[in-house]
Design goal:
This is Peptidase M28 domain-containing protein. It holds the Pfam family Peptidase_M28. One of its GO terms (molecular function) is metalloexopeptidase activity. Keywords: Signal. 32% of the residues lie in helices and 24% in strands. The chain has 488 residues and is α/β, with parallel strands linked by helices. It has 2 domains: 287 residues, Aminopeptidase, CATH 3.40.630.10; 156 residues, Glucose Oxidase, domain 1 (3-Layer(bba) Sandwich). The strands form 3 sheets. Strands 1, 2, 9, 12, 13, 16, 17, 18, 19 and 20 form a 10-stranded mixed sheet that branches. It has an 8-stranded mixed sheet with strand order 4-3-11-6-7-8-10-5. α4 links the parallel β7 and β8. α8 packs across α12. The radius of gyration is 26 Å and the shape is elongated.
Length: 488
């Protein structure tokens, strides 16, 4: 009799455990299909969308494509006014192409010989003082326009760091400008060294594009210093600036624009009467860099991995959720203008289309289709970036049960030179106190170049990363207790 009771107890316990495991196993993996991912990414990251630059018609066309695909997947609109869209305005300022600059009464060509580093209205008609080295800064420089060779920054950016030439230039200019600013100079002209000249197409394109912001969203709360005109010139102009009596005349004007950008927002309802009022938010961005400097005669920066890979992965998760809904609802936000400074996610985190308190977790991804099929990275996993141990545990459990990635946590280290944690759309949500993780398969040589095309995507890797995100979201959906924020 005791043996029968013991056997019955074990049977019931085993059944309960099996039921719990079954509830935690994502039931609709078959709806994440390689052929769908491949078809979608070749469409979205093809040349027809011209790189999907924020604030352009190309971004709008891409957003409409995403909304149509979401509707076809069975996802319901969750944007403004019963639509799939949440529009907001980007405020852009740039140096006007009407600007004119001359050195020694000889015109210099804007964006080919000289590059103002920020959009700042500048009217100069002044002599130029050549500084042979930073040692010359001991002289009285107050009110003067100075020119000098750019000096390599100390320390140099880490070897192999992404966009190395741009980082080298920015850091060098920042370091030298800080010294010269304290001396009271009126303007600074930096002569490019070989490193800067070797990267000037990319660097100059960024200066030419200007600055973007979203009205009402504060990105940098640090104290701002008075703007100072700073220009970079090609090395060929060094001789003219070193001449006795060198002189600059500049009339730099500014253009200001209001551009629309857009988040695409959709949802799939949950099955539990109470938990369905809460959301697991899947996050990515649909924009990229648009038309830029040509590389091997290709000027379309397609952004297949960055971030069409996640855009189509989220569509696949949406198909799975519609087929087999979780207890909690799923919210999908494809952000616009990420490449211009996380503008879409900053806007949505400040103006969510659902109750912000109902968002229990954000599962964000950026670049999930390259590098080894057995490796991935997860950010938001190490203090001070980790804000929810419970959410991290769910992601690692999903990986253990399903995808078996060797997870690289090193890029989440606060001392990692890339600062990768701060460069994707989970950040505004984490700053708003919502548990958040960032899935990625990390950088590669085609990052932010026209070579990031669909042919370079490992579809099997993309599918595997998509399944990891889906499985993590499924665990969040099925667990009654919402992932808790860590105490610190």
């Amino acid at each position: 009799m005791l043996d029968m009771k013991k056997a019955l107890t074990l049977f019931i316990l085993g059944t309960l455990i099996s039921s719990q495991l079954l509830a935690q196993t994502p039931p609709a993996l078959k709806f994440i299909k390689d052929e769908d991912l491949k078809k979608d990414i070749y469409e979205l990251a093809g040349d027809a969308f011209r790189g999907r630059r924020a604030g352009t018609l190309d971004e709008m066309r891409a957003a409409a494509w995403v909304a149509q695909k979401a509707q076809e997947a069975g996802l319901k609109p969750a944007g403004d006014d019963g639509t799939y869209f949440q529009f907001y305005n980007i405020h852009r300022t740039r140096v006007s192409n009407r600007s004119a600059i001359s050195i020694n009464n000889q015109p210099v060509e804007l964006w080919k010989q000289i590059w103002p580093t920020q959009p700042l209205e500048t009217h100069l008609d002044a002599p130029v003082l050549w500084l042979k080295s930073m040692a010359d800064t001991t002289a009285d420089l107050k009110g003067k326009v100075v020119a000098l060779n750019i000096i390599a920054p100390q320390p140099l950016p880490a070897a192999g760091m992404s966009l190395w030439g741009f980082r080298y230039t920015s850091l060098a200019i920042r370091q030298q400008t800080a010294v010269l600013r304290r001396q009271g100079v009126t303007a600074i002209i930096f002569v490019a060294d070989p490193t800067v000249e070797g990267s000037i197409a990319f660097i100059g394109h960024n200066y030419q594009e200007g600055l973007y912001q979203v009205d009402g969203i504060t990105i940098n709360t640090a104290a701002k210093v008075q703007p100072l005109p700073v220009m970079v010139v090609a090395a060929q102009l060094a001789g003219a600036l070193q001449q006795s009596g060198a002189h600059i005349k500049s009339d730099v004007s500014i253009d200001s624009f209001q551009y629309p950008s857009v988040n695409v927002v959709a949802q799939a309802g949950g099955t539990d009467p109470q938990l369905s009022k809460e959301y697991v938010l899947f996050s990515g961005h649909h924009d990229h860099d648009g038309i830029g400097p040509a590389v091997d005669r290709d000027s379309i920066w397609n952004g297949a991995d960055d971030n069409a890979s996640v855009t189509v992965g989220m569509l696949a998760i949406g198909r799975a959720w519609v087929a087999k809904p979780g207890k909690r609802s799923a919210l999908f936000v494809w952000h616009g203008a990420e490449e211009r400074g996380l503008l879409g996610s900053r806007w949505y985190a400040a103006h969510p289309t659902v109750n912000k308190q109902a968002i229990v977790a954000v599962l964000n991804a950026d670049m999930i289709g390259r590098n080894s099929i057995d490796s991935a990275a997860l950010l938001g996993s190490i203090p001070p970036h980790k804000n929810s141990t419970a959410l991290l545990d769910m992601a690692m459990k999903a990986n253990e049960q399903l995808t078996h990635f060797k997870v690289d946590f090193s890029w989440d280290d606060a001392k990692h030179p890339e600062g990768w944690y701060f460069r994707s759309d989970h950040l505004p949500y984490a700053q708003a106190g919502i548990p958040a993780l960032f899935f990625t398969s990390l950088l590669h040589p085609d990052y932010h170049t026209p070579k990031d095309e669909p042919a370079g995507i490992n579809i099997a890797k993309l599918a595997k990363m998509t399944r990891w995100m889906y499985a993590t979201g499924w665990l969040v959906s099925q667990t009654v207790a919402r992932p808790a924020l860590d105490a610190k």
